[in-house]
Fold these 2 entries.
Entry 1:
Amino acid sequence: MKYPRIEVRELKKSFDETVILDHINFKVHLGESLVIIGASGSGKSVLTKCIVGLLKPDNGDIFLDGHRLETNSSDNTTVAANSISYVFQNSALFDSLSVIENISFGPQFLNKQNEKDANEIARESMKKLDIHPKFWFMYPKELSSSLRKIVAIARALAVKPKIIIFDEPSTGLDIRASHKLDYLIRESVKNENITAITITHDINSALHIADSIAMLHEGKLIWSGKPSDLKKSSHVEVRRFIKPFLSST
Ligand SMILES: Nc1ncnc2c1ncn2[C@@H]1O[C@H](COP(=O)(O)OP(=O)(O)OP(=O)(O)O)[C@@H](O)[C@H]1O
Ligand SMILES: [Mg+2]
C-alpha cells in the first residue's frame, strides 16, 4: 500500500489558553507541491513547525510515509530532520559561514559526507540555482535579501531531502526576484521529485508553485483544492483573502 509522504490527522496546538491550530487534517503525496495560504497569525508557521518537530502538538498525529511521528518525544525532531529540510521565514543562514560553507554544512554534518564531497555537492547545488561563483565565498551579510533566500534554498536542497518546507520564501522581494524564486522552487521540486510545502501570503506565487492549495483561517483549515478551483471558491473567507489579488489582475 502506498502511503502519503505526509499525513496530518486531527492536529491541535494551543499556547496557554489560546487555540492556535484546531483539528487540522491533510495529506501530501510524493512529488506533490502543497501551498498553505492564510492571513498573518492564522497558524501557518506553527503548523509546519509541528510537522518538523520544532513544536509539540497537543493532540493529533503526523505520519511520514505511513510512520507515525512520536509527538511529545524528542525522536520526532530526529526522524523529521533526516527527511525534511526547512527554509525558515527569515532565511536563517549561519552569519559566520560563507555561502559555500553554509551549503556544504548539511551534506558534511547531517549526511556525514567528507569535506571534499560536501564541497562538491555545494558547488553543484549553487550551479543548479544559478548562484554566480563571485558570491560563493561571500558572507550572508554581504548578499542581497533575494540572494540570501536563494542560498537558503540551495542549502536546503543540498541535503537531498525527501520533503522541503519553505516558509514565506518570497516575502519582502520585488516581483522579479519573487518570480525567479517561484520558478526555482517549482523546478527543483519537479526535477528532484521532492514533496514540498510552501507557505505564502502571495496568491500569484501560490498559483505558480502549487499542485494543491490549503487555506488556514484562525487555526482551521477552511479550504483545500486545486489552484484552478481557488478563484471559484464561494467560501467567504477565501473570497475575502483572494479579493485584492483578483482586483489586481
Ligand atoms: N512560541 C509561541 N508562543 C506563543 N504564541 C505563539 C508562538 N508561536 C506562535 N504563536 C502565536 O500563534 C499564532 C500563529 O502564529 P504563526 O507564526 O503560525 O502565524 P503565521 O500564519 O505563520 O503568520 P505570518 O504570516 O505572520 O508568518 C500567532 O497568534 C502567534 O502569536
Ligand atoms: Mg509565519
Entry 2:
Amino acid sequence: MKLVPKLTAAFVAATFAVLVVDGYVRVQREVTVLRADRERDHALLGRSLGAAIAALWRTGGRAEALGIVDGVNARRGRVHVRWVEGAGGADHVHVEASTLREIAPGESITRIVATGAGGERFTYVPISVAGTPEGMLELSELLAAEEEAAHRIVVDTVTTTLALALVSGMLSVVLGFWFVGRPVGALSRKARRIGAGDFAAPLDLPQKDELGHLATEMNAMCERLAKAYDRIEDETAARIASVEQLRHADRLITVGKLASGIAHELGTPLNVVTARAQMIASGEATAAEAGDYARVIVEASGRMTKIIRQLMAFARRKPADKVPRDVRRLADEVLELLRPLADKKDVRLELHCNEAEPSATVDGAEIQQAMTNLVVNAMQAMPRGGVIDVSIEHESAQPPGSDHASPYLCVSVRDHGDGIAPDHLPHIFEPFFTTKDVGEGTGLGLSVTHGIVQDHGGWIDVQSEGKEGTVFSIYLPAGKPA
Ligand SMILES: Nc1ncnc2c1ncn2[C@@H]1O[C@H](COP(=O)(O)OP(=O)(O)O)[C@@H](O)[C@H]1O
Ligand SMILES: [Mg+2]
C-alpha cells in the first residue's frame, strides 16, 4: 500500500472513531436534556393549573374552577387534562393510592406509562380547598413527539459525523497527495534516474520541509557523484593507456630479443645473396649459371622477407579485436618465430594438440604475445637446452574463487629448467619483478601476460616444484566443452 493512502486511511479511521464517540455522547446528553425539559414543563404546567383551579374554587366555586379543565382541553394542545374526583381513591389512575396520599398540596408526581400509542407521560396534582382534598388534576401527554425529536437529534448527529469524516478524508487525500505523494513520487523518479547513471536535471521541489531538504541533498549528492564519475573515467582511461603502453613496451623488448636470434637467421641467406650477386655482377657466371643464381637469390630473399614480416607483425600495435581463432595455429606461428632463438640455445619446441582446430574467441596478436612471453621465459630457464612442451586442450576447470566448473581452453607451457624459488613465486606477476641480469630481463613479461589473459576473461596458473621445471597454464573461456 502506498504511503499517502496509508496515512489517509489511518487519519480518517482515527477521526471517524473520535467523531463517533463524540456523536454518541452528544446524542445521549441531548436526549436526556430533552426528556428532562419536557418533564419539567409538564410538571410546571400541572402545578400552575392546580394553583389556578384551587384559587378559583375558593372564590367562584367548584363548577367555575373545573371549567378551566375544559378550557385547556378545548385548545387541543399537546397536553390533555382530566379532573379526577377524590384524593387518590379514583380508578384509571397510574399511581398507587398510598403514594398519592403522600403528595403535599401544590406538589405533583409524574409517571411514564407504556400504552398502545408508544408510551405516555402522566402527571398528578392533588387539589385541596380550605384544607379539604377535593380531587386531583391528571395531565397526560403522548411521548411520540418527544421520541421524534430524539430521533431527529440522532439523525442530525450521524449526518454531521459522516459529513465531517468525509471532508477530513478528502482534505487528507488532497493534502497528502500535494505535500507527500507528489514530492515522494518526484524523489523516487529521481532516485531511479540516479540508479541508471543519469545525474543531470536536478530536482526542483519548492517546499521548505524535510522532503524539500531531501531533494536538495539528493541534488548535491548527484553533483558529487557526477564529479566522482568523471574522475573515475579519467583515471580508468589513464590506466588503460598506461597498461597499453606497458604491453607495447614489452612487445618491443621481446622483438629486440627475437631480433638477436633472427640476425643469425638473416645472416646465412644474406651471405648467399651477396656471394651469388657478386658472381653475377663480376661476369664470372655463365648465362645458365646466372639464371640459377638469380633463382637462389629470389629464394633467399623470400625467406628473409618472411622473417622480417613476422617480426613486423609481432611488433605492430593493434587494437584488441576478439574473434573466434584457431589457437593451435596461433601457437604454431609463435613457435615458428621463436625457433631460431631456440635453436641457438639448443632448445627443442614441441606442440601437442589432439584437436584439429581448437577454437577460442581471442585477440590473436595478444594471445601470441602472451604465449611468446611464456616460451621465452621457459627457454631462459633452460640454459643447458632441452625440450619445451606446449600443449593445447579443452578442459573443464574451476576459475579461482568460484565453486563450479566451466569449459575452458587451456594452453600450457612446460619447461624442464630449474623452477621458481618459493620466495619468488608470490612476486613473479608483479611488473618489473625479475631475477635476471640487466639486458636479460625486464620483469614485464608475466605481468603483461596476466593482464592479457584477464582481459579475455580467463586466468593464468603456475606450478613449479623443486628442480622439476615449471608449467604455466593459460585458461581461456571456450564456447564448447572438452
Ligand atoms: N619458466 C620459468 N622458470 C623459472 N622462473 C621463471 C619462469 N618464468 C618466469 N620466471 C621468473 O619470473 C620472473 C618474472 O618473469 P617475467 O615477468 O617474464 O620477467 P623477466 O623474464 O623479464 O624477468 C623471472 O625473472 C623469473 O625469475
Ligand atoms: Mg620474461
